Automatic annotation (TrEMBL):
Pathway: Amino-acid biosynthesis; L-proline biosynthesis; L-proline from L-glutamate 5-semialdehyde: step 1/1. It comes from Latilactobacillus fuchuensis. NADP(+) binds at I6, G7, V8, G9, N10, M11, S34, A68, V69, K70, P71. This is Pyrroline-5-carboxylate reductase. It is found in: Cytoplasm. Keywords: Amino-acid biosynthesis, Cytoplasm, NADP, Oxidoreductase, Proline biosynthesis. The gene is proC.
Amino acid sequence: MKIGFIGVGNMAQAMIKGLIKAQKITSTDILVHSAHATTYEAVAKEYQLTPVADNATLVAEADIVFLAVKPYIVPQVLEETAAAFKAHKTVMVSVAAGLSLDKLAEQVGQSDLPILRIMPNVNVANQAGITAVVGNSQVTEDRLTAVKAILAQLGGVVEIGEKDFTTFSALAGSSPAFVYLFIDAMARAGVKHGLKKDAATEIAAQAVLGSAQNVLMSDDSPWDLVDQVSSPGGTTVAGLLAMEEAGLMTAVVKGIDATIAKDLENQERD
Ligand SMILES: NC(=O)c1ccc[n+]([C@@H]2O[C@H](COP(=O)([O-])OP(=O)(O)OC[C@H]3O[C@@H](n4cnc5c(N)ncnc54)[C@H](OP(=O)(O)O)[C@@H]3O)[C@@H](O)[C@H]2O)c1
């Protein structure tokens, strides 16, 4: 199976890095094209991918194509590639934030083309990402399974409705920044109590990583897990209550609310 990337910027390269690390796809089966030959040829050389001279040839030669250009570039790319998508039945997977499946079908000028929309987060580069996926009515179960199998090489995959993509973006796309802030706050507290910053950061990051793995591996809810580490009359419950008194949960929910509100405001403006 050949996988194409139109655009080799931040997100495409994060996905390509994850795919290369997963070692399930031969690197030369990944085809790339972007606006500048110097850019996509350099990326192809770095990861031993196959550079392709134009977008339409890439769509003709690949089985699945990820559209990894900025949303305002998508109409231009789809104009160039519409005939190739139609002739070769190539599966289109858009990474462009905020562009609906209907809008993509309208821009490519074909209502019967299988189109999927995905939203990966930056952690796909380490195969620890989470990607949301949704397909239009033309996407068969086989095609959806094929795309999900590629995305699963990059971390978790969740199928959600288009209406939930904005919420997903806040919870998965922006949240690495929130988690970095939490790790830094923990590390800073460690420094306050005498640890060196490097050591405190490593301790906090590893604690967050292990705890997240526990949540994913366990059938217990996070609340159950909180109870399991809170001994009666102990230190942890004292810390938890002090954090709650300072409004930790409200702060997190307000942060997600503000992220979603800003995204909706931007979508309205665009
Ligand atoms: N970055 C994120 O965290 C993130 C997360 C989720 C979704 N997304 C979505 O991913 C998409 C890409 O974002 P990004 O951050 O990767 O952008 P980016 O770093 O600016 O990369 C954009 C890429 O598009 C290429 N390009 C521009 N015009 C083109 C054309 N006519 N034909 C082919 N390629 C063209 C550019 O080529 P050159 O390099 O040659 O100039 C560049 O490689 C966006 O739609 C964004 O909404 C991004």
